[in-house]
Each structure stands twice: as C-alpha cells, then as structure tokens.
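Q: What does the assembly look like in three dimensions?
Context provided by user:
Components: two
Sequences:
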Amino acid sequence: MAEKDYDDIPGTFVFDADRSREGYWLNQFCISLRLAKNREAFRDDPEEYMTRYAMTDEQKQAVRDRAWNHLLELGGNIYYTSKLASFDGITFQDLAAKMTGMAREDYRDMMLHGGRSVEGNRSKSEWEKK
Amino acid sequence: MAKITAGIGCSHVPAIGVAMDTGITEQPYWQPVFKGFEFSRKWCKDNKPDVIFLVYNDHCTAFDASCIPTFALGCAAEFTPADEGWGPRPVPVVKGHQKLASHIAQSVILDEFDLTIMNEMEVDHGLTVPLSVMFGEIPQDGAWPCPVIPLAVNVVQYPAPTANRCYNLGKAIRRAIDSYPEDLNVHIYGTGGMSHQLQAERAGLINAEWDGRFLDMIANDPDKARQISHLEFLRETGSEGIEMVMWLVMRGALDDKVTEVHRHYHVPASNTAVGHIILENHD
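A: Here is the predicted structure of the complete assembly.
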C-alpha cells in the first residue's frame, strides 16, 4: 500500500477508504444504535445483537471492552463509535477525554484554556521525542 | 430574479443545540458562545431571507456507511430532525423549497457538478444548530422563518471534496440561483468547523491562530482559501477541522469582494472552536 501523507499526523486515525472497508460492519453496528428499538435490543442481549453484524472477533471484543481507540484502529469512525458512547450515556467531551487518556476534569480544563496546542502535535516525530 | 445577498459561516457543534434545547445558554460556560450571535439574530430580522441554502454535513445519521454521496442536495418538501442517538432535537420540521431546489439541481448538474438528489432525508444537528443559533429558540410546533435547501457534503470518509472543488461548486450554485426567475432573497450558509479533533490521542486540538487566518481569507482572499490542502486541514486544524471545506461552497457563491459585517470566535464549545462570520454581497 502506498504511503499516505496524513499517516505522519500523531494520535489520529484518518478514516479513509481502507479503514472504511475494514470497519464496515462495526460502523453499521454502531449506527444501528441511533434508533431506540435497536438500543433496546442491544441492551436486552448484547451478544445476540452483535451477531446481527458481521464484525470480526477483535471488533466484537473491542465493543465489549469499550476500547475506544482500538475501535478506531479497527476501522471504526468516531461519528459511528460515538453512537455506542451515547448508548452508554457518555457525552462527546467525556468520550474525547477517554481517548486521550486524560481525566475528565483535566480534559475539560484543557478545553477551557484554549484546547490542545498544535505546537508539538503536528508530526509523529515530535511525539517520539517526548 | 432570485439573488444571493449574504453568506454566513457558522460552526454546528451538537452541544450548542443541547444547550439551547435545555435552556442553559445563560450559564457562564455558554454565555460567551451565544453572546456572539446576538448581532446575528438582529441582522437576520433586518435582512430576512426568503430561502436559505444550507451547506452542512451529515454525521452518520441520514447516511450510514452503505452510501456516501460527496454532494447530496435536499429536494424534498420537508426534512425531519433525526434521532441521533439521544432523541430528536425539539425543533420544527424543516420545510424545503422544492421548485428552487430542482432548478438548482438541473442547473448545477448541467454545469458538470454531479449531485445526488435526495427526495427523502432526515437532517441532523449539522443543519439545525446553525438555524437555531441564527434565529433563536423556536418551539417544536412552531416554524423556521423560511424554507431551507440542504446540501449535505461528505466530510466523514476521507477524502472530502477539495476546498477548490467546493469553491467552484459555490460558483455553480450562484449561477443557478441567479437564473431563477422569481424574486427571492437567498442566504447561503457554510457550516462546520472550526478547528477541532474529536478522536484518538490528539483529541482536543484547537488552532486559534490558524482559524483567525482562515476567517480573514474567507472574507478577503477566497482565492487563497480555496488552495488549502486536505493535509493542512488535518494537520493544522484537527481531523474534523476539514469540515471547513464547506465554508468554501458558501464563499464561492458570493461576489469576489464582500463586506464583512460580523465575526465571532470562541473556544470552547465542548471539543470545538466556534467560528461565525456574516458576509454581504455588495449589490
């Protein structure tokens, strides 16, 4: 596979066609939770509900574990996985905090003080130095 | 003749809609966000549009992964606010303008922009939040002030259309609206952004300096703005900052030289930098 210019951006999964292909059923599972009747079915029997979508075992495990970054690594897209977070009653900001590994209050505080600076966060090489 | 008299750039953060729907806009966290729209609401009353052409993106609501149109034009009679996973927003159904929408579809497609035509579509916060911030709280059984023609742009699966493509589509939309025989005052909205990243370890990225330059370019140097690369959007403004290509559709539909009548910028609303600009065409 050709190298992608955006692969150098640290801490970021660019949801391109390759990821979309890999994450197709995971994302279709997640978006199904948009509808109340599906949320109910997933709540009643999560294992049965997951069998309705042709996810890989690893994807299913990441759903069980609510492994938010791993879900993205396995082809999930944030707008889809956020439906799973929403199912759990997690707000978008708290979901973001979880993915950064920061405590909820620390993340909220960072946002109130202007967010994460782009300085030092443009390239993977900058993260490797840390 | 129909005429585009103004362009509006505006973020569409879902939490802004939630703040309005739950009546907490006066809280210290939200007050500065909404303060910047006081002028806009007055301006909307003084410059009432007959139709709004609203460029936004669907956040995996109306479109799931099975169908990803790059540009989808809403030609339906009405668009219902969708349940995005926490119940639909308590806002009115959005009425379309079918005659103008089908005129635009025909004109723009013959102008070589191959739109997808949506005769049924639910709309999410990407469309309703900009209307809410511009027009204020409107009860669910009320009505938006005018019909709306939605244009949904794919910015979820990479690649989104380029900034340049969006700008040129704006020009084609302008030609379409200019050739519509009925006298209509049309406002065009470009929504989304500004800098934000919602995912993975770099979530929370904000680049206020870059956003400021973008607002300057949108107002005064669109020719430069349309050359911004996808890599620059992703790297400098966060993975979701690429939504700003949609502002280029709006800008392309305006005159080369416009008057900036209002600008607002605030960090944060949830994970996002809120940006807003109102640009008026000269004649």
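Follow-up: Residues 15-88 of chain A form a domain with the Protocatechuate 4,5-dioxygenase; Chain A fold (CATH 1.10.700.10).
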